[in-house]
Amino acid sequence: MDELIRLALTYARGMWHRRWIGLAVAWIVAVVGVTVALRVPERYEASARVYVDTQSLLRPLLEGLSIQPNLDQQVALMSRTLISRPNVEKVVRMADLDLGINSPSAREDLIDSVMKGLQLSGNVSTNLYVISYRDSRPEQARKVVQSLLTIFVESSLGDKRQDTRTAVRFVDEQIKHYESSLQIAEDRLKQFRLKYLGVAGRGNQDYFSRLAKVGDDVETARLELRAAEQSRDSYKRELAGESAVLLPEGPSAPLAVPDVDLRIATLKSELDTLLRKYTEQHPDVVNTRRVIAELEEQRTQDLQALRKAAAASGRNAEWSTDRNPVFQQLKVSLAEAEANVASLRAKLASYEGQYAQLKGSARLVPQVEAEFAQLNRDYEIQKKTYETLLGRRESASIGEGVQDVGGTQFRIVDPPRVSPQPVPPTRIALLALALAASLAAGLAASLVASEIMPTFHDARSLTDLTKRPLLGMVTMLPSAALGRLRRRQTAMFAGGLSALFAAFAGVFAIALLIGRVA
């Protein structure tokens, strides 16, 4: 700590020894700073707060169809839209900024300067923006902002309905385009289905799913047929062990085979039902007719057998013997089992035909289904976009009605006003900066001069610099004349420094007076 204090005192003695250089530099910097501060004109800011609808009609219509800008991009877009070059050219004419300007280059420079001076800031979420402009003439700044607002209001009133029509017309054009594309996609899909009828996928099933399903159906039908055949064979074995008739001793009913007649009647009823749903060539219809024919032939054989049995016993051939109820029941069950077997065989044949057809088209179907999926996907995309645009056209019509009622895209919230005080940096601030700069420059100049032309004020400084031992010191006894000279120099330095502060005080007073008068 002592070393730091000693070093600071050493620097202070050196700067005091070169104080006149510092004072001269301080005066020079002060004169330059005051000149610059007085020449820089004070600028006044005119501002107005407005409401701007950044959510234009195109944005809700195109939502989801295009990339939306972020908040910073919206502010920049609003700035470029409102403070455009055509609008600024109108502002220059309306505010009479181009009076006295004859050359085109000077006019272009003026327009560029105004465009740079106009500022737009605000909050995108509330749609409130502040338009500001700075000029050395307060009234001129207010006229610039007022002219810009006038242009915006006139443009908003004139272009609002046109913007709505443009947006609706744009959506109508898109609807026509997608309607045509949708019709083309529908025609392609229809032609493809007609060309590959029965080959393309059904519903959400592809080729391999249908092939697996039909294969499972074939296996299931085979198992059902095997079970039905086993049941039929069981009935046949039981029927072979039963007697068809029981010959009674007394007279009986006329000759008849009621079990076969019942089965024939049942099958004929089923045949009528099948003919209502299928054609004569359907496998179930053909099999049912075949079973009916077999039963009628069996009925004829049974009647002949009954007549022979009646004749052998000496009974009337027109009268039948007593029937065996177990035999008759087995005959009915056997007939039903045979009908079930015939139906399952037809079903199995149909499934096997489908499976063979699918296996035969194994190379073609995947390609066809891939093309069908692509066409169907294109069709769904076109249809979804078309329906979306139809809904947004309706939204646009509703939006146009709301806009007619009272919607607006631009509204003045606070009219243009000029701040009574100049905006920073003010002239007072510049003068204070000049004073601080002059003092800092003087101190820096004294320090640099003391380092360039060093002097030694104690023995330790000399020893530290020369790295040699100090043999002795000679003390100087100041005379009265030297004392008076030093006091006079100190007074002159204090006077010069005081004059610097006094000069700045006078300049500050003049600047404040000018500001109040203005």
Report what the structure shows.
The chain is an alpha+beta fold and 518 residues long. The longest helix is centred in the first third of the chain and has 58 residues, at 138-195. A hairpin with a 4-residue loop joins strand 2 (119-123) and strand 3 (128-135). The model is unreliable at 249-253 and 316-321 (pLDDT under 50). It contains 15 helices and six strands. Helices cover 71% and strands 7% of the residues. Helix 1 crosses helix 13 (427-452), helix 7 (138-195) packs antiparallel against helix 12 and helix 8 (207-240) runs antiparallel to helix 11 (325-360). Strands 2-3-1-6 form a four-stranded antiparallel β-sheet. It has a two-stranded antiparallel ribbon with strand order 4-5.
DSSP helix count? 15
**Structural class by helix and strand composition:** alpha+beta
Rough outline: elongated
Biggest sheet strand line-up: 2-3-1-6
E-strand count: 6
Along the chain, the helix and strand elements come as HHEHHHHEEHHEHHEHHEHHH
**Could you name the ranges where pLDDT drops below 50 across 5 or more consecutive residues?**
249-253, 316-321
Number of domains: 3
Characteristic terms for this protein:
single chain; alpha+beta; 3 domains; four-stranded antiparallel sheet; 15 helices; 7% strand
Q: Summarize this, please?
A:
The protein has 15 helices and six strands.
Topology (SSEs and partners):
Blueprint: H1 2-17, H2 19-39, E1 44-52, H3 58-61, H4 71-82, H5 85-94, H6 104-117, E2 119-123, E3 128-135, H7 138-195, H8 207-240, E4 245-246, H9 258-277, H10 283-312, E5 322-323, H11 325-360, H12 364-405, E6 410-418, H13 427-452, H14 459-466, H15 480-517
Antiparallel strand pairs: 1-3, 1-6, 2-3, 4-5
